[in-house]
Amino acid sequence: MNTLFVYNTKAGNTFNTSILDEIKTHLPSKFQSDFIEIQKFDSFDTDNYECLVAVGGDGTVNTVAKRAFNQKKILAIIPQGSGDGLARFLGHTKQIPIDVNTILNGQKIQIDTADISGHFFINLAGAGFEAEVAHAFDKAGVRGILGYVKTIFRLYGEKKERKITLYLNNNRFELPFFSLSIANGNQWGNNFEIASKADIQDGRLEIAVMRKPKLHQIPNLILFMKNKRKSNPLVTYFRCDKIDVENSGDNWHIDGEPIQLKDKKTVNIHPKSLTIIVSHGQKENAKA
Questions:
Q1: Was domain 3-112+272-286 assigned CATH 3.40.50.10330?
Q2: What is the residue-averaged pLDDT of the chain?
Q3: Residue 148 CA to chain centroid, in angstroms?
Q4: What CATH number is given for 119-270 in this structure?
Q5: Can you tell me the distance from the alpha carbon of 26 to that of 228, in angstroms, rounded to the nearest whole number?
Q6: Strand, helix or coil for residue 163
Q7: What is the H or E stretch that residue 220 is in?
Q8: How far is it, in rounded angstroms, from Cα 107 to Cα 36?
Q9: Average pLDDT of span 136-153
Q10: Is the model's pLDDT at 288 over the cut of 50?
């Protein structure tokens, strides 16, 4: 299987090019593969590759997965980011020998993908507070969990609730919201799960509408997201396959990457539209 490894040296906060050497040491001598920096990927011809491997974080996975989706290639992941939401959802360990073995010996499954107003995403898109964090985080140019925490606390006091309008399978809902997550996978990253019931193979998306927590509610909200608790009074859930969004603001994120989206937003899911390699013990991690 001719394989292209697409790596991002800016992923996470500890990426070292020795990771690439480690990957190569675990590949068979006759394994057909090439390596390319993600900065060169946009203009790189991938027609002759069967498998595209994202070596980086959620943004790298999004970029590589989009090409795999468009060209009907196989996707694999070697997570090296600061959040790694999709990789953690699928049960990756962030151990190079295990992740390479998955590429060599794992199973291929079909998963859903989605788009928002034509912009591809594979794990999660969001608006409100989580999008403001993504925009601020990107602007600051820092990485790692500590950078996220600092950004979250700085923005928490500034941002207020607003009203959002959702059309879910043509049913209209107007709700107060602080943060909106449209989830194909189950988490933002770092095992903070905003949609624990998400199933990346069921042809539907989880929508989580979060109210702004008061200070005393934050510890319980953190426990809710870290411990896969069933419900929290601050979060309202829906599940559907067609979503229209109004009054969300223009700041969004797609798989953790900031983006500006004007006017009404339309979200569509593409059932079982991408082939991905997971280990034989990981398939059930793709389901709630």
A1: yes
A2: 91
A3: 16
A4: 2.60.200.40
A5: 34
A6: strand
A7: helix 218-226
A8: 25
A9: 71
A10: no
